[in-house]
Amino acid sequence: MKITDLLVKRIVLPLKQPFKIALGTNFEYEGVVVQIHTNEGITGIGEASPSPRITGETTGTVIDVIENKIKPLLIGKNPLDIEKILDEINSAILYNSSAKCAIDIALYDILGKHAKLPLYKLLGGFKQKIITSVTIGIKGVKDTVLEARELVAQGAKVIKVKIGLAPVEDIEKIKALREEIGYDIKIRVDANQGYEPREAVRVLNKIEQYEIEFAEQPVAYWDIQGLKQVRDSVNIPIMVDESLHSARDAINLIRANACDIFNIKLMKSGGIREASKIANIAESAGIPCMLGCMVETRIGVGAATHLALALKNIKYADLDGHLFLKEDIVEGGVITEKGIDRVTSEPGIGVKLIKKVF
Ligand SMILES: [Mg+2]
Q: If you measure from the C-alpha of residue 55 to the centroid of ligand 1, how many angstroms do you get, rounded to a whole number?
């Protein structure tokens, strides 16, 4: 099989509501979709959800890198030689992880379609479903409680709350939330780097009594010492997100004893291959992983769900990025019902375009 063409398109999709986190607010979703064509009629689809503040990319840089640097490397190659192709891309281009991710997902989609298997079966097939958190962006105490009530009524089993901008309100919010939803529902918090280390310790120690499952990225992504300081001073397990992109980051975090859990995202790692490496390194170090996502369509979240189901060491999921979209360009990929993510038995990622994109 040979790659004959690669199509790239920018997409802009409306969100159900503005999404605010400590790093900023998004009013719509801007991503890039790719389609890889082969001489055997199989096509693979992939997605990049670039984040200037996390991966340092925009849709413009993603399209430029894919069109001008990656596409010439891909044409004529056998898409099943995934390791070889991704190694060539990584040798030619530093960073640009979401652009690489789009290509990685599309290649794995082709692999699954060629093998006539849903991707999670090819990657390990460890489980059939995974509980996912649903995320509430930063908003006032009242609105947070109202939204949580609605999400729980819809079947959510885990609520992830964005914090990190206002320590006093954060504490008040978690208290009110716990009182509203009771103790059967899990609560995770994510500060998205919003606190200074001492501030993080103060807030986390105050909310420990409300049974917090774990706290994500309390301090700046570059501050591994600060992260360790927080981890050593609180009882809530500390998860890294923005500090962890690659397998090398994983090794450094393990050496530094800086965290309890990893949050792996395909857009940070550059796709499924590097994400699997992180999960495997973590497993050997006794660190469980969560698979997370950005705001993404069912292509990106679908690919991540397949990986989450495939591997034993993906113990948690925060795969709700597609739920923020008012409309999607594909159907399938991931099915979310009552706080549980599943995939279909369709081959590859299992998505079907329902909008004209290319
Ligand atoms: Mg996070």
A: 13
Please write the tens of the pLDDT for every residue from 193-221.
999 999 999 999 999 999 999 999 999 99
> 303 CA distance to ligand 1 centroid (A)?
18
Q: Quick check: helix, strand or coil at residue 284?
A: helix
User: Which residue stretches of the chain are H helix?
Assistant: 59-65, 71-74, 82-92, 97-115, 119-123, 141-153, 167-181, 197-207, 224-233, 247-255, 266-269, 272-284, 298-310
- Catalytic positions, written as ranges: 162, 265
Ligand 1 center–CA 233 separation, angstroms? 20
Domain span including residue 104? 3-117
C-alpha span between 306 and 171 (Å, rounded)? 35
pLDDT for 338 equals 97
Residue 80 counted as domain residue: yes
Q: How far is the CA of 190 from the centre of ligand 1 (A)?
A: 6
Tens of pLDDT along 308-318? 999 999 999 99
In the predicted model, what is the mean pLDDT of the chain? 98
The answer to whether residue 358 is domain-embedded is: no
